[in-house]
Amino acid sequence: MHNRSFFRISMQTGAWLILAFLLLPMLVVIPVSLTDKSYISLPQDGLSLQHYQNYFTSAKWLWATGTSLFIGLAVALLATVLGTAFAIGCWFLSDRMSTIARWVLITPILVPPVVQSLGFYRFWVQLGLIDTYTGVILAHTLLALPYVSISVFAALANLDRRIPQAARSLGASVWTTVISVVVPAAKPGMAAGAVFAFIVSFDEIVGVLFLTVRNVQTLPKMIWQGIQDNIDPTIAAVATVLTVITLAIMVIGALRKS
Amino acid sequence: MTPGLLTDRHRYWLLILPALLVMIVFYIWPLVNILGISVTEPEPGLGNYTLLATSHPIQTSFIITFRVAAITTAFCLVLGYIVSYAIYNASQRGVGLMVALVLLPFWISVLIRSFSWIVLLGRSGLVNDALMGMGLIDRPLRLMHNEFGVLIAMVHVMLPFAVLPIMANMKGIDRSFVNAARGLGASEWTAFWQVYFPQTKPGVLSAALLVFVLSLGFYITPALLGGGRVLMISEYITYQIQEFLKWGTGTMLSVTLLVATGVVILAAARFVNLRRAFLERG
């Protein structure tokens, strides 16, 4: 018995240590964001909110945040519509061709970001889409499609195939069946997919670095440039704001479930 | 419309086609173009590809890339396995919190997490400051701009990708086999290693494939923590394009990286159910 508890206790202790390794490094941005110095450091002579003030009063940071929100919402909408229709069509067909189509749609998960960004860049130049919102929204929509189609497909796995069949045999057209039977069943997947799509777009950096110059400034691009040029504690303030929002959403989500 | 003109199958394809066409025209086609550029710029032929055999920096970059990806994968598997095991095989206390702690980093930008590591590991970062403050060292250690810094941050970023497939696999495992083995006199370790572990292999292999493939093409964390010294292939490609405008070399390396990734996935297909690893979860 002693042996058994040793094994379990060491696994359990190890797991908590590993989880601490996951969590703690992300929290360092909080004290750093409150530093009273103008460089990255822990607060020394007192706490200061100057870096938050800098974020919330800087036209550049706010504009970039707004840009990322706008692009993210557009991407979530587009990717959810396209990806849901796609997944529903594939679910109905469930044949070899539709499986191949599903593989095609998930390639962005597997292709290295730099490689796909080179492809985007060369094609977007020809289309005149470099440094435009349309260009970024289109690129991000493609990157978000796999996540939407996977989550809608997962939601449809619970739908009994006989239900749409029953609707059809009672005289409903394909479109009526899709809209009043399949879409309601797909809704949880669509919601998850839309959230995924928004986050994929909101976080995306490599494509934006290749596809934009000055016109389109997203939040990740500002953070990236900030890290490269001078490490300014404003980045820590931005990071803290985003981390706290993420935490709040997770807590709300957990409370709603229970 | 009469059924004769448009069958149900056609209607389903009408749902599929918009996304599929957008994908083919704006994603697959540009990737094919990359292949084209690699054999036409600066001049037609396979000239760019001869660099793979002759260029020492390129070979070094590929070696670094595969080494970093392999080490990251190994650490993620061990650490991810321990976390998953604790979540599904211990008393229920804290399970929800543990799952939440695994998922939280998943939702926080890779850029921000890499920034956190820079804050920690930099020359005048918090770790060096603390160590010097305590008098343990008298000058800053080099904790980043080397493989150590890249690896620790990569493991941090990739660990959730390893935990999720392993957790999904363990969820479906019946404990009664292990209990039977224990009842028949096997030690805890024997029951784990000979009865439990083999059942978790599919999850472990999926995790290995996912982490390895994502690590091969990873850009942000190596670029930020490597400081130009740990030049993984993605960053090498970016240099070729942005600093030297060498599209031929950049696209040739892209094609090579893509082929290498494809070969890894196909080789893994013998051991991993690709459908479950990518289509059903991603």
From TrEMBL, chain A:
Protein family according to the UniProt entry: Belongs to the binding-protein-dependent transport system permease family.
Pfam families tied to this protein: BPD_transp_1
Locations listed in the record: Cell inner membrane; Cell membrane
Organism annotation: Paroceanicella profunda
Membrane protein topology class: Multi-pass membrane protein
PANTHER family in alphabetical order: INNER MEMBRANE ABC TRANSPORTER PERMEASE PROTEIN YDCV
One Gene Ontology CC term in the entry: plasma membrane
Keywords, comma-separated and alphabetical: Cell inner membrane, Cell membrane, Membrane, Plasmid, Transmembrane, Transmembrane helix, Transport
Residue ranges of domain ABC transmembrane type-1 in the record: 65-253
A GO biological-process term: transmembrane transport
Domain of life according to the entry: Bacteria
InterPro entries reported in the protein's UniProt record: MetI-like, MetI-like_sf
Cell membrane recorded as keyword: yes
Principal place of residence: membrane
Bilayer-crossing regions: 69-93, 100-124, 136-157, 169-186, 192-213, 234-255
UniProt protein name: ABC transporter permease
PROSITE patterns the UniProt entry points to: ABC_TM1
Automatic annotation (TrEMBL), chain B:
Pfam families with a match to the protein in the record: BPD_transp_1 (PF00528)
Subcellular location: Cell membrane
CDD domains: TM_PBP2
The entry's keywords: Cell membrane, Membrane, Plasmid, Transmembrane, Transmembrane helix, Transport
One GO cellular component, as annotated: plasma membrane
ABC transmembrane type-1 domain segment(s): 62-268
UniProt signal peptide: none
PROSITE patterns, per the entry: ABC_TM1
Membrane topology: Multi-pass membrane protein
GO biological process: transmembrane transport
Parts of the chain that traverse the membrane: 12-38, 58-83, 95-120, 148-168, 204-225, 252-272
Similarity remark: Belongs to the binding-protein-dependent transport system permease family. CysTW subfamily.
Protein name: ABC transporter permease
